[in-house]
Design goal:
Aminopeptidase, 2 domains, Alpha-Beta Plaits, four-stranded antiparallel beta sheet
Length: 396
Amino acid sequence: MLLKDEITGKAEALLPELTEIRRHIHRHPELSYAEHETAAYITGRLGALGIEYRSGVAGTGIVGFIRGEAPGRGLTVGLRADMDALPLTEATGAEYSSVNNGIMHACGHDAHVAMLLGAGEILNSMRSTFAGTVILVFQPGEEKAPGGARLMLETGIFDSFRPDIFIAQHLLPDLPAATVGFHPGPYMASCDEIYITVKGKGGHAAQPSQYTDQIYIASELVVALKERVAKAGSKEAPTVLGIGRITGMGATNVIPETVEIAGTFRTFDEKWRKAAAGLIRETARETASLRGVEIIVDIVEGYPVLVNDEKLTRRAMELSRTLLGSGRVKELPVRMSSEDFSFFAARYPSFLYRVGITPDGEEMKKLHTSAFDIDEPSMVTGTATMAWLTLSLIAG
């Protein structure tokens, strides 16, 4: 039997188990950095498989390791899945819906965990066939800065393993079920959080000489920021400055003393990312001086640009075509969304690929919405692809 057929067969046989794992985690979602029950469930699964692990890494993170038993020296390959859910109220109506009110796996992390456990089970059962080491990384806090990937790296745990390659996968409703997608090179944008507070004199709306108009000033600042960022940005590096909230707790005739602005800045150019932070602060200072108010800017550093190693990604695409067939392997455009796997990719040769989850003819269920759900048989594709890529790349 060919290796690819053996892996595919093992993954198909695991579908009931993958579904059970995914539904259990889906029913019991936990927010970023609070994935305690999820972590306990994962370690229970790893223990039952006889896979060694370390828990409590950067809080709730887990690192499992499978040592190949074949002679020779293979590479060390890290495989990552994220564990956290989102603060959303589920509206799927599924029998496995969340039992934790206001928390939902709306980004597919439940399936990511299931597929990594499935790939780990396959690789552990085949450890006599390869040399090298596989690291299974179950990561907390992908959805919230500073990012669980960064925190796990800062513990130094990977210094002892010294990974040669890191791989991650993520579901994508835009792709047809049972397909995978890759993008060599820069793939996902950086992401920083912007918080701005405008403070001045409040007062009765009918007496403009006695107050500074914080609502007006905040609006003026938003327009100035959007215009300046758009003008200064590079055409070669797509950029987004999105303002998601302006809050001023006044009334029809009350001008508030404080107005708060919150938004996000995303780009594909790390130098421009730093320069833009300076431009935002400079624009705020100029507006404060002009209008006689205080403006406080807090920029929370998020995730860097996710860069898929070009050579490694193209090799992975060819290997995936061997496993799945050319028609099931797509090349994807860049995305302005962000991923903290970028911290791993900045340190090790890495790539993140996508797994399609929308069957032909069915309505797409978008990520980060209360209606999000997946085509569960697509987890077979993700599990088989991850195991196949690992075994194909570990030999070097």
